[in-house]
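Ticket opened by: R.M.
Priority: normal
Category: complex prediction / small molecule

The reporter submitted a protein together with nicotinamide-adenine-dinucleotide and asked that the result be attached to this ticket for the collaborator who will pick it up next week. Submitted input follows.
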Amino acid sequence: MLKGKTALVTGSTSGIGLGIAKALARQGADIVLNGFGDVEGPKAEVSKLGVKVAYHGADMSKPAEIDEMMKFASGRFGRVDILVNNAGIQHVARVEDFPPERWDAVIAINLSSAFHATRLALPAMKAANWGRIINIASVHGLVASAEKVAYVAAKHGIVGMTKVVALETATTGVTCNAICPGWVLTPLVQKQVDAKAAANGWSNEEATKRLLGEKEPSMQFTTPEELGELAVFFCSPAANNVRGVAWNMDGGWAAQ
Ligand code: NAD
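Result attached by the on-call engineer:
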């Protein structure tokens, strides 16, 4: 379905981003990976799926590097047809203890980076009259939790930005939507499980159960594979007129 298209997925060396990159590659899209840590492993996983893969190591907190990454992607593949704004970090602390530099980092990586990548991707998408912008927000783009002030602000922000971009592209073949996952067991969440286990003297299993039990009625993690399939749907012709939605896949979290 996506043969001949190019997808750039930010923060795709791990977790949800890698799951989405692989789901789009299974549909035939060439992939530009981005993110820190091991690069060769994710690159090999994606190229096994029979598509072309490139990597750019832009730090998503730096607008100049985002600009370089967008130029690199269109230089390599001609155009970015699908942009998945996924890179993100978390910091957990009460407002009065929240280090201002962590606030700045969360807002830069989880929110401003998506603005920069989107503004740079849109002209070519509009010229081709086809494009998909998929913002990986969070159930925290819809509801709040204590001790996550920067994350919740950034994720509510990205849901708002999704709606603006959807309105500005409404009469074109470009769509912009957000995905709002509940808990997904990636390194970002394992750190929160570890912190709970250490603070309370719980086993990993007990801390995991308590973490799910607090928020997620299904008591199940959403998987990167499931989120990848939702991204594939947004890229399909059936989703041509799905615009500006914030679609939660959260085990019932936001239904409470
Ligand atoms: P993860 O830690 O597994 O992956 C994050 C990715 O972002 C990695 O590839 C990392 O290298 C990259 N990254 C981090 N900082 C970066 C930077 N400055 N520049 C470039 N890349 C950077 O996390 P994840 O759980 O897969 O999270 C991915 C997205 O999904 C985030 O936006 C997160 O907020 C969102 N999300 C996660 C969950 C969850 O439960 N895991 C739930 C809802 C939303």
